[in-house]
Design brief:
Length: 122
């Protein structure tokens, strides 16, 4: 039982530090309102203490399961929203394809933070 705690602590610290780094990177880009998948949204909202508000979208960028509908409303009403997806995830591939085929109504600058693409409207 003790081995689980001893070996698990460094991994938990790494995950925490990475999440804090992700939040700092998004804040440096002045991104308060974003769309992403369920787990990314929940982690960003919680870990940023609601400094980043996120609405969940599915793989085709349609409204996903938002546990707290007020977040969705805030993001939809925001003047500037971005998308954040894990590299090579289904929604990441979908949005890249939409941009390449010029099927997106907006133009995006695609930025990288470790493990993620950040799609910032131009």
């Amino acid at each position: 039982m003790v081995d689980i705690f001893v070996t698990g602590i460094p991994q938990a610290q790494f995950v925490y530090q990475r999440q804090q780094s992700d939040i700092q990177n998004l804040e440096k880009l002045h991104l308060k309102y974003i769309y992403s998948d369920y787990w990314i949204c929940n982690n960003l909202i919680f870990m940023s203490n609601e400094n980043i508000i996120c609405a969940v979208v599915n793989s085709q960028l349609k409204e996903g399961f938002n546990r707290y509908p007020a977040y969705l409303t805030e993001v939809q009403q925001a003047p500037r929203t971005a998308y954040v997806f894990a590299l090579n995830s289904d929604p990441d591939k979908y949005l890249i394809n939409q941009i390449r085929l010029k099927q997106s109504p907006l133009t995006y600058r695609i930025m990288n933070i470790p493990g993620y693409h950040v799609f910032v409207p131009v």
